[in-house]
Design a protein that fits this description.
Layout: E1 4-6, H1 8-25, H2 27-46, E2 53-54, E3 61-66, E4 69-76, E5 79-87, H3 92-96
Parallel strand pairs: 1-5
Antiparallel strand pairs: 2-3, 3-4, 4-5
Length: about 100
């Protein structure tokens, strides 16, 4: 099984996503949403080139939509590195340049 790794920023994104879900939808829904995000990350690790490279970002990244969020990642060897997990309304460029 291939591996996915979260950046510190992506880990923080997941905490914020969980917190928002917990406050607005309850613990069960928040747990299910985070689990679904992690399952999608594993799927992307298994099929890393599913998404095209997005050269408008420097360095180029791959972006996969998952419900209301974007999983932003790069392929490193045979694994993937999750750079950020952002709401689809957020400015990607602003958040990946940090």
């Amino acid at each position: 099984m291939k591996v996915y790794v979260f950046s510190k920023e992506a880990e923080n994104d997941l905490v914020e996503i969980y917190r928002y879900g917990f406050i607005n939808y309850g613990e069960n829904k928040a747990d299910l949403y985070i689990e679904a995000l992690k399952e999608k990350c594993q799927f992307l690790a298994d099929v890393p080139n599913l998404c095209p490279d997005r050269y408008e970002f420097n360095p180029p990244v791959k972006i996969h939509h998952h419900r209301k969020h974007l999983i932003i990642y790069v392929v490193e060897n045979d694994d993937i590195f999750i750079v950020r997990v952002l709401h689809n309304r957020m400015d990607i460029q602003q958040h990946i340049e940090k």
